[in-house]
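From the methods appendix. Each design record in this collection lists the tokenized structure first, followed by the designed amino acid sequence. Records were kept in a plain field format so they could be parsed without special tools. The example shown here is representative of the layout used throughout.

RECORD:
FOLD TOKENS (379 positions):
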């Protein structure tokens, strides 16, 4: 069996009402405590750190935190989110994913600050699907404006036929350091190289298409598989489909939010659907078949004699699937008895005769009170 995930608040050692600053402070503390150099005796230190990084990734994001608070780990998984920590190979890589290599925590833990090509930003988009598409799953083309690798220079930033040279300002390191003397001793400042922007390389002649950036903004289309059972607000993540990074830097991710279009025939409650069957007062009294819509087509449903408004008939297994498979949900049919408002003379006379034959109580069900509940006898 897979290991049970620990509560993210427990992992970071904070209360559920903790603020952003407190959460970040807790993660920084754990990062220092779990550093491999400090915990050489503990072979699980790095895995513990990745667990903390996963907790921080969720609790530092307002939307993910709300989802986790309401639905827990299962809600995050069903929304298409997956922790980034497992995608990195080392303690340093995981840390840089959350704080960036320019963050002071890097100097504290590793004794240096290293610049590098910036990764691309994430892209947010949305798709609208119908309930029928939720039933079976579908494919959608998602189009958005995004930074893409320049095709003319293949992302190098150099005009075709020219070279990419080592930056002379930083000697290819991507950063420069300034050392100054103070009354407290030497002060070392470091930052991204202003010449190459932290890349360590510069084009001999900048590409005429992208101006040496290695990226251009253009319309992009991504074919997205929308799984059956998805709900409004859940997101699908496509790793590496976001904005292209700087030359040598990773691309961002594409997050697509699903919006399930409203359907006037149904209300959705998770896997279950609710439909309303309008029934005439005479049909409700006598019983009979009525036709109601389902996602599999129209179906006849037998209305029992004496049905009342609000009574429910359940059709098993004709609702929606779960994201994780298994049996489909149910469809609940609510009876809505309507009374005709326009009667001709003959119909009015028949109604009068029926009223007289039913007597003073109008044929009310035995034992039913004013609000339709069975009256309890007082002992």
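DESIGN:
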């Amino acid at each position: 069996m897979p290991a049970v995930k620990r509560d993210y608040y427990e992992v970071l050692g904070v209360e559920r009402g903790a603020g952003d600053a407190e959460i970040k402070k807790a993660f920084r503390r754990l990062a220092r405590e779990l550093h491999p150099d400090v915990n050489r005796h503990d072979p699980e230190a790095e895995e513990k750190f990745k667990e903390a990084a996963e907790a921080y990734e969720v609790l530092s994001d307002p939307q993910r935190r709300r989802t986790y608070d309401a639905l827990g780990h299962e809600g995050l998984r069903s929304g298409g989110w997956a922790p980034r920590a497992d995608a990195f190979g080392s303690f340093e890589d995981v840390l840089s994913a959350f704080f960036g290599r320019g963050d002071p925590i890097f100097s504290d833990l590793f004794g240096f600050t290293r610049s590098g090509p910036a990764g691309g930003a994430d892209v947010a988009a949305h798709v609208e699907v119908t309930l029928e598409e939720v039933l079976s799953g579908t494919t959608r083309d998602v189009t958005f404006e995004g930074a893409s690798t320049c095709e003319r220079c293949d992302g190098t930033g150099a005009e075709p036929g020219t070279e990419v040279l080592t930056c002379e300002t930083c000697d290819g390191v991507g950063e420069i350091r300034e050392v100054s003397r103070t009354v407290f001793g030497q002060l070392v400042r470091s930052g991204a190289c202003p010449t190459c922007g932290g890349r360590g390389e510069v084009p001999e002649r900048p590409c005429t298409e992208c101006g040496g950036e290695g990226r251009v903004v253009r319309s992009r289309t991504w074919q997205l598989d929308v799984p059956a059972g998805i709900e409004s607000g859940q997101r699908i993540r496509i790793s590496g489909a976001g904005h292209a990074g700087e030359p040598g830097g990773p691309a961002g991710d594409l997050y697509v939010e699903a919006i399930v279009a409203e359907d006037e025939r149904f209300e959705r409650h998770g896997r279950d659907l609710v439909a309303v069957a309008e029934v005439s007062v005479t049909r409700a009294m006598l019983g009979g078949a009525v036709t109601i819509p389902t996602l599999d087509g129209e179906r006849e449903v037998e209305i029992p004699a004496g049905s009342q408004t609000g009574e429910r008939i359940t059709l098993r297994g004709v609702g929606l699937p779960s994201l994780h498979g298994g049996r489909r949900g149910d469809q609940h049919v609510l009876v809505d008895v309507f009374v005709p408002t326009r009667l001709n003379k003959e119909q009015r006379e028949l109604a009068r005769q029926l009223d007289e034959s039913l007597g003073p109580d109008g044929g009310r069900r035995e034992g039913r009170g004013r609000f339709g509940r069975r009256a309890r006898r007082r002992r």
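APPENDIX NOTE: Residues 42 and 283 are 75 Å apart (CA to CA).
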